[in-house]
Amino acid sequence: MVGDNIETGIVSIREALKIAHNLELDLVEISPSANPPVCRVIDYQKFLYEQKKKLKEIKAKSAKIVVKEIRLGPQTDEHDFNFKLKHAIRFLQEGNKVKVDVFFKGRTIVYKEQGETQLLKFAEALLEYGKPEMMPKLEGKRMIMIIAPKK
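User: That's the sequence. What structure does it adopt?
Assistant: Structure tokens below.
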């Protein structure tokens, strides 16, 4: 049996429960596989609260990854392309991932090469801000590429 303000040692279960009851605390089994099993005298509700608090703190510190989406067409004009490029640069500087997709409407699906060229040109323009995480891939009527920010 171990715990705060308690003499560490080997005691019977009844005696350990009696000690925990007198201190108005809980007897919690820490390692049942040990010989003899190890128990600790603690306030179990307080222990659970502190554990939950630690998990919440770790979760708050972890980086939240946001994916911003930019949509192009296979024949997107130069001005529109540059406009969307500026948005992508801002997103990458903020630390967000950018998902760029070329959407093929109707019969424009025959221009797959143009769509891939658009995406590669976009990735090349963003090389100093981010690196392609996934190369252009056709999924149905969309060609998708993901660009992650440089650290």
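DSSP finds four helices and seven strands in the chain.
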